[in-house]
TrEMBL record:
InterPro entries with a match to the protein in the record: Cro/C1-type_HTH (IPR001387), Lambda_DNA-bd_dom_sf (IPR010982)
Region (Disordered): 224-256
Stored PROSITE patterns: HTH_CROC1
Gene3D superfamilies: lambda repressor-like DNA-binding domains
UniProt-recorded name of the protein: Helix-turn-helix domain-containing protein
Residue span(s) of domain HTH cro/C1-type: 12-67
Length: 418
């Protein structure tokens, strides 16, 4: 069991023992009864007020975050350095001597790891130099990846328009490579959705998906909506490439390419839900599920994190978008028990939990919203503390009187309270 899984009462008991205190001694110092301490430690009595947790922490001589099972506080607010990224995107000088591809690949890999572990402050510092190096390199793949990472981070930090610019640069760098272009399109769609341009995002996602998953698409039937209701996902070994005739031999697509197509379908589903096209959103998630069912343990060269769990998380968010919070939360409780949940990157899980907190708010469940935010903070602190969207959700939950303990602490950390 990890520290994050240990109930708070058990943490209180452990620290009491470490401080060589009996339950009666702790009770006396808190001016409470021994029975109260015993119930807290056994989990019979909930510690749902931050002021009480602070009092306990003071007596036990630990930080409140330790009792709450949190990592040491991460600085809140947008990391400094976004202007440096903006300046790097504005530079077009590619006359510098190209760096060794292996070294650039190592730097790009480091940037991806920083992003997936939600180390956004660290990533902000390295991206300007990475962009300068990648722009002078002769590797479209690494240039596309560098722009994609930049776009994804900027969207997180509330710079959606600048993120769209970086994503558009990725599209240009992809040139005639359909898979690189499709991977870049994922970032384009996410930037458009973050800018509340869901209709444009839907068009972009389906256009890109249809190019690499032609067997799933029929744009003539539904305009930009794409897929027919009677079509089913073919298995990867049945997929034909574009331009291949009926008599041409089937060309096997690598699983990583199918993952890019499946991710585009999920992005299209979320955009459709944002447009109020709920039936189409459900159809698109069903098609994505068909793709995911054929993938098992594949390498993920395009960093999509696509799979059956990703599809189920998208179903939760689609249900929340159509204001069916009850279904969203029912699905959420199920998917959290799936083995694949913990294998997703910290960034992915943290971002999803912030969205789930919004769903809890829709049904007026402040404690549920607070739990989701606290869980997100324990998994990926920067997701909660650096993103403007998360700050808005924290503020909404913190308005309750009394505010749930974990969110009261988060509100203080991100500067929403005195």
């Amino acid at each position: 069991m990890t520290n994050d899984d240990v109930p708070i009462g058990r943490r209180v008991a452990r620290w009491r023992v470490r401080r060589s205190m009996t339950q009666q001694m702790l009770a006396d110092r808190l001016r409470r009864s021994k029975s109260w301490v015993d119930k807290v430690e056994r989990g019979v009595r909930a510690l749902d007020r931050y002021s009480v947790i602070q009092e306990l922490a003071h007596v036990l001589r630990v930080d409140p975050e330790v009792l709450l099972g949190q990592q040491p506080s991460t600085s809140a607010g947008t990391p400094d350095g976004v202007d440096g990224i903006r300046a790097a995107l504005a530079r077009y000088d590619t006359s510098q001597a190209p760096q060794e591809t292996d070294e650039l690949r190592r730097q790009v890999g480091y940037a991806w790891l920083s992003y997936q572990h939600a180390h956004y402050g660290q990533l902000v510092r390295v991206l300007p130099g990475l962009l300068d190096t990648a722009q002078g390199a002769r590797s479209p793949e690494l240039l596309v990846q560098s722009y994609r990472i930049t776009s994804l981070l900027l969207v997180k930090l509330g710079e959606a328009d600048l993120g769209w610019l970086a994503a558009d640069r990725a599209m240009s760098a992809a040139s005639d490579d359909p898979i690189l272009a499709a991977a870049a399109a994922i970032s384009v769609v996410q930037a458009l959705r973050a800018s509340n341009r869901d209709r444009l995002a839907l068009t972009a996602a389906l256009t890109a998906a249809n190019r690499i998953l032609p067997a799933l698409s029929c744009p003539a039937d539904h305009g930009v909506g794409g897929l027919r209701g009677d079509q089913t996902a073919r298995q990867p070994h049945d997929q034909r490439g574009e331009g291949e005739g009926e008599g041409a031999p089937a060309r096997q697509r690598p699983p990583g390419e199918w993952a890019v197509g499946g991710t585009l379908l999920l992005q299209a589903a979320l955009a459709a839900a944002g447009c109020g096209e709920h039936r189409q959103a459900n159809e698109l998630t069903d098609r994505a599920a068909g793709v995911a069912a054929s993938l098992r343990g594949y390498d993920d060269p395009h960093r999509t994190s696509f799979g059956l769990v990703a599809v189920e998380l998208a179903r939760v968010l689609v249900a929340a978008q159509r204001s069916d919070a009850d279904e969203a939360l029912r699905r959420h409780s199920t998917v959290m028990r799936r083995e694949g949940w913990r294998r997703l990157p910290a960034e992915y899980r943290g971002a999803y939990l912030v969205d789930v907190a919004r769903a809890y708010l829709q049904v007026g469940d402040l404690r549920g919203a607070a739990r989701a935010l606290v869980d997100a903070d324990s998994i990926a602190p920067a997701e909660v503390r650096c993103r403007p969207l998360a700050r808005t959700v924290i503020a909404d939950v913190a308005r309750a009187q009394p505010a749930p303990a974990g969110v009261a602490r988060l509100a203080t950390v991100v500067g929403l309270t005195r």
